[in-house]
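Supplementary Note 3. Input sequence used for the single-chain structure prediction.
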Amino acid sequence: TRTSQRYQDEVARLASEWGCHATPCSDLITVALRHWQHGFNPLRDWVVASGIDSRSREKRLPRWAWTLPNDQLAALLARLMGSDGYAVTSGVVTVAITLTSESLVRDIADALLRFGVWGHIRSHRTNYIRRDGTESIAWTYRIATECVRTFADEVGMWGKEDSLNACLDALTDREDKLIRRWRTRNCPPGYHWEPACRRCTS
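The predicted structure, written as discrete structure tokens, is reproduced below.
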């Protein structure tokens, strides 16, 4: 997906705190970070020192991420999910993230456990062929349906709040339908289960 203006503004704000200037590139995905002093870029040096300058399929959470307090770790995860994740309601409610790095996907899954959120990981082939002729493999982490509300409350998806809220609305509608179905399932016409349940528990 193309970088939203909100993300570009966020990157520009953070870059300015490092004395750098952020310039969106023509592909509308990459953002060039330059320092006013030629040959000196503290933000680039920090990225290298953090070990997050590797190729996409080799990326993972930096070591310092595991020492962050919950609010800061949630902010980091919310931006990762907001940039490469998605929340859709077609057919079933799906909140997931797909990356080419298995290590980063598993790191995200492990980090979300701190907030009581768990899910499932699977791999699948893509249409992209690498230069060496091998197929590219993508890894998807899908949050369990029963954890979507907890994820929304504790972490969220920065920049994709509307999509996540649509998933929450879809879950509410589904729960209401299940409740209505339970009230009359296997009951004679005109009856429902609540009075019988009250008598059994009184």
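DSSP finds seven helices and six strands in the chain. The two ends are 56 Å apart (CA to CA).
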